[in-house]
Design brief:
Elements (H helix, E strand, L loop, with lengths): L3 H16 L4 H7 L4 H8 L7 H11 L3 H7 L10
Protein name: DNA-binding transcriptional regulator, XRE-family HTH domain
GO molecular function: DNA binding
Keywords: DNA-binding
């Protein structure tokens, strides 16, 4: 069973990818990853490293903090 955090991240990325008119293969190639790797991210099967999340957000032109908040976590900026 996959954890809810990973599933929510995957759903958010899937929606953003579709809004950008990209296939899973195209997005994977944009960040130097395989289609299979990206499919597993969308399905919530794998943990997403920060560096990969950052690359995906840049490719999709989305705010990484919005991704974190959608997934139920805190944003990536330290509290002041």
């Amino acid at each position: 069973m996959y954890n809810n955090f990973n599933l929510r991240i995957g759903q958010y990325l899937k929606n953003a990818r579709k809004k950008n008119g990209l296939t899973q293969e195209e997005l994977g190639k944009m960040i130097g990853k395989s289609k299979a790797w990206y499919v597993d991210i969308e399905r919530g099967k794998n943990n997403l490293y920060f560096s990969d999340a950052k690359s995906l957000c840049e490719a999709l032109n989305i705010d990484i903090n919005e991704l974190a908040k959608y997934a139920g976590g805190n944003d990536f900026h330290p509290k002041k």
